[in-house]
Amino acid sequence: MGFSAxxxxxxxxxxxxxxxxxxxxxxxxxxxxxxxxxxxxIEHKLSVHILRRGNQLAVVGSAETQxxxxxxxxxxxxxxxxxxxxxxxxIEAALRAxxxxxxxxxxxxxxxxxxxxxxxxxxxxxxxxxxxAQKAYVRNLFEHEMAFGIGPAGTGKTYxxxxxxxxxxxxxxxDKILLSRPAVEAGERLGxxxxxxxxxxDPYMQPLYDALNDFLxxxxxxxxxxxxxxxxxxxxxxxxxxxxxxxVVLDEAQNATTMQMKMFLTRLGQGSRMVITGDRSQVDLxxxxxxxxxxxxxxxxxxxxxxxxxFTSKDxxxxxxxxxxxxAYEKAEL
Length: 334
What we know:
12 helices
């Protein structure tokens, strides 16, 4: 099991090369990826060259980048040995884990990444938080009855919340899931779309359907929706309800008004969990109208039992270009 590192002798002409040997050639093929795209991703990020020689990989670069690349390759190979697939996000996560932090070694960070405690099991897939902020967020989703996730797009705020909700529903910890969003246009006008109320509302709710489809088989999801064990509804439909034994998510909370936010938060009933996610940089409310999310931060920051979790562009798990786009906009706003 595992791989071995072959250190070249001091007299070697290529002293800047680390040779890694992998015993299972089938896993090595998966490690490299189709057309070696996994290796290319690591090469681009760490400025190294990775050459395949039979069942060995030669890493060429500085001593520091060789160590980082070897750590990433080791972590990814261990995932494959544990019968876990490798996706682009997993590679980005492993790359982040090798960036040395204060008092944390490369090996320690990789071990934290491999910790199964951060794995969320749903019917269709296992979900793993990929950054320290995401791990803290998931831990708070399980430990607190009310949790806020605040940060830019692509950081997994809603995706992880829905995954935890599905896990709790499967395990019998809650009786139902309720997902909600404010029905506020992001610069477009959807009121003229054809169809009844559901047809007009569904475009706002599609990201929530997409997340559920990732975690539950299609037939089971349809049945849960029909039985009202999973509900997806606009924020305005929450008025007057008391939500007991439910996992409740308010997505795009930056577009809730202060009154709507207070109305929503006071729906919490016995045995329920409530998650509020939002991005303060994407408020679509009319000019001059305060965001209920920003007010909630100020008002509830010191309230016991409520957690606030913040994400940055470093936590983006979509295409790496998304993080660079967010960083560019943040600089332009300074």
